[in-house]
Automatic annotation (TrEMBL):
Protein's recorded name: histidine kinase
Predominant location category: membrane
Record domain PAC: where: 268-320
Topology versus the membrane: Multi-pass membrane protein
Record SMART domains: HATPase_c, HisKA, PAS
Length: 550
């Protein structure tokens, strides 16, 4: 669309140059320019003039001369002034400043060789004759159109100048022709701007005719729905979008946004659901309006569609955050308050073991609160891009052995197997952060493997990376849960995990840490068959390629 409009604009510009050139020739001129009254046509346009047979580089000097001299007015519509020889010489420096029959190189070479200039040749005659600048104001009933400035030899004149009535009629006809041509040019520019908005808008836009058949379908709409414009043109728009309300019920044609716009009720930011080509439904915000004819009859409908799926996901995350945090804060606070209230009772006495057990419970719940708050602060730093790493060469074997020893001391019934290859290469990593990742993965394996409490930690070298894996024999993770497992506040949706503590931030933090190292983290799992969480870290030294002898 925009390419055809650009070509149309070039055609109009060519016609405008022909019109100006014809007028200049009729007036006895040989070159000139038309200065447009832009406020009457296109205030945003930077093109203030149209030239005829004048080099663009010479226009600035000519316009300065015109501004310093006399200008025509409605009371004095025609002005003639002599063109200074200095300006004429400056104009002659340019290749094709006046007339199509000028060969400046031949003129210059003849002058240098002392040859006599042929007065019958117009190009040579301009070197010896004086020129004058003529200015003509053009206006009509609508106001000023512009000014026509042209150059002609001083002895030249037009027969129109000698007849005031004919000259006035000529000016009126030229003004009407110029206004029509410039108005057409302005309309094409406006069409180009609208076409660019339609083409590059991030919101989907479709237009329909009075029968609700699609007549325009922009690229953003194609990306939203999966339909190509060529596939939907002429189709009933309701059949293409299959709109539904927020609850997923069919909207019905009588409640469709475009029909309401045709009925004189513009729709602004109404939330509905539309269906993509593959059957997927998603939430959008739509605005609809109607274009009426001069007689007030509805001609076209315009529907603007904005995808708000991400906004809805963010709202769900906020709701989930409030729900999870409220639950995770209330539980330890309730336990701490309960034990503290019991211990503070004046009428109760406790033996040493009971007192110690309850104080340990308070300490554990306080640690749980501290971890939760720490994870929340950690997540906020990740979102703000404030995750700081101290990267250095790191030997993974002692780090893994140390973490495993701590876990086995804390849970003696947990069987952790370590499988490390000999000569494991060093990696470039932050020791504390990688230790935190490994502890989180082992903690999850322990938490979600209630029956089979055997966990395996293994390492392998693949290319320029070292892969660390933590495998359990627990309940496994569904494919649906795997897709969102590393997002904030996401937890496995399973009855056996509903009572387990956690805010759904651990794996999100693990992913941020590993990605900050330039590595990857992923999960391989199937329901009731256990899970393997793996992450990669870059080697300190690149792997050497094997030597191939031919």
């Amino acid at each position: 669309m925009s390419r055809s409009l650009t070509q149309h604009f070039k055609d109009l510009h060519g016609q405008l140059v022909i019109l100006i050139g014809s007028a200049i020739r009729l007036l006895g001129g040989e070159a000139g320019l038309f200065v447009v009254a832009n406020e009457a046509f296109d205030p945003q346009s930077s093109e203030e003039y149209t030239v005829y047979q004048i080099n663009e580089a010479a226009v600035g000097s000519l316009l300065e001369h015109i501004q310093r001299g006399s200008l025509p007015t409605p009371a004095r519509p025609f002005v003639v002034e002599r063109l200074p020889s200095s300006l004429l010489d400056e104009l002659d420096l340019f290749a094709d400043f006046i007339g199509p029959d000028t060969d400046p190189e031949s003129v210059t070479s003849q002058a240098r060789s002392g040859q006599r200039l042929d007065s019958s040749n117009p190009g040579q005659r301009r070197q010896t004759q004086e020129y004058e600048r003529c200015s003509l104001i053009l206006h009509d009933q609508s106001g000023l159109v512009g000014m026509l400035h042209y150059l002609r030899p001083t002895e030249s004149s037009s027969c129109l100048e000698n007849d005031e009535i004919r000259f006035a009629l000529f000016r009126a006809q030229l003004a009407a022709s110029m206004r029509f041509a410039l108005k057409a040019q302005s309309l094409v520019r406006e069409q180009e701007r609208l076409a660019a908005i339609f083409q590059y808008s991030t919101d989907g836009i479709l237009t329909v005719d009075h029968a609700f058949r699609i007549i325009d379908f922009n690229p953003a709409m194609e990306r939203l729905t999966g339909w190509r414009e060529s596939e939907v043109l002429g189709r009933f728009y309701y059949d293409v979008l299959r709109p539904k309300d927020r609850q997923g019920n069919d909207l019905g044609l009588e409640n469709s946004p475009i029909l309401q716009a045709f009925a004189g009720k513009p729709v602004v930011n109404r939330e509905i659901q539309i269906t993509a080509r593959d059957g997927q439904r998603f939430s959008v915000s739509v605005s609809a309006s109607c274009v009426h004819s001069a007689r007030g009859e509805p001609m076209n409908g315009i529907l603007t569609v904005r995808d708000i799926t991400r906004e809805r996901e963010q709202e769900e995350q906020r709701s989930m955050f409030i729900s999870v945090i409220s639950h995770e804060l209330q539980t330890p606070i309730a336990i701490i308050k309960g034990y503290a209230s019991t211990l503070a009772r004046a009428d109760a006495s406790f033996d040493r073991e009971t007192l110690r057990a309850r104080l340990l419970a308070i300490e554990e719940e306080a640690d749980r609160l501290n971890k939760l708050v720490g994870n929340l602060l950690y997540a906020s730093r990740i979102e703000a891009g404030g995750l700081h790493m101290e990267i250095a060469p790191l030997d993974l074997e002692p780090l893994i052995q140390g973490v495993v020893r701590r876990f086995q001391a804390r849970s003696p019934d947990l069987d952790i197997k370590v499988q490390l290859p000999p000569n494991l290469p060093l990696v470039m990593a932050d020791r504390d952060r990688i230790e935190e990742v490994l502890e989180n993965l082992l903690d999850n394996a322990l938490k979600y493997s209630p029956r089979q409490r055997t966990v395996t930690v293994s390492c392998s070298t693949v290319g320029d990376e070292v892969i660390v894996s933590v495998s359990d024999q627990g309940m496994g993770i569904s494919l649906r849960d795997q897709e969102r497992l590393f997002q904030r506040f996401q937890r496995i949706n399973h009855p056996s995990t509903s009572g387990r503590p956690g805010a759904g931030l651990g794996l999100y933090i693990c992913r941020a840490i590993i990605e900050a190292h330039g590595g990857r983290i992923w999960v391989e799992s199937a329901l009731h068959q256990g899970s393997t969480f793996s992450f990669s870290l870059p080697r300190k030294e690149k792997a050497q390629l094997p030597m191939v002898v031919f």
